[in-house]
Amino acid sequence: MAVPLDQNIAGEQCAITTYRGLRDAAKDHDMATYNEALTILEQEVEHDEDLQSLRESLDLMVERDSK
Ligand SMILES: [Fe+2]
C-alpha cells in the first residue's frame, strides 16, 4: 500500500507530464499558453524535488531508527 507521500510524488510527476505536453503542444503556436505552461511546469518540478527530498530524509530516519 502506497503512503500518502508516495501518492503525492506520483501526482506531481503526473502534473509534470501533463504540463510538459501542454508546453510542447503550444510551442510555436500560442506563446501565452506556452509561457503559462512553462511557469506551472517549473513549479511542479520544484514540488516534485521537495517531496523527493522529504522522501529521502524520511527513509534515512527510518533506516537510522531501525539500527
Ligand atoms: Fe504540485
Describe it.
The protein is mostly helical and 67 residues long. The chain has a domain at 15-42. 87% of the residues lie in helices and 0% in strands. It has two helices and no strands.
- Structural class, judged by helices and strands? mainly alpha
Number of helices: 2
Work out the radius of gyration.
16 Å
Estimate what percentage of residues fall within beta strands: under 5%
Main sheet specs: none
Helical content (DSSP H or I, runs of 4+) = over 70%
Question: Which stretches are low in confidence, meaning pLDDT under 50 for 5 or more residues running?
Answer: none
Morphology: elongated
Q: How many individual β-strands?
A: 0
Secondary-structure element sequence? Answer: HH
* Distance between the ends: 24 Å
Brief account:
The protein is mainly alpha-helical and 67 residues long. 87% of the residues lie in helices and 0% in strands.
Please specify the SSE layout and strand pairing.
Layout: H1 4-26, H2 31-65
Helix pairs in contact: 1-2
The structure holds fe (ii) ion.
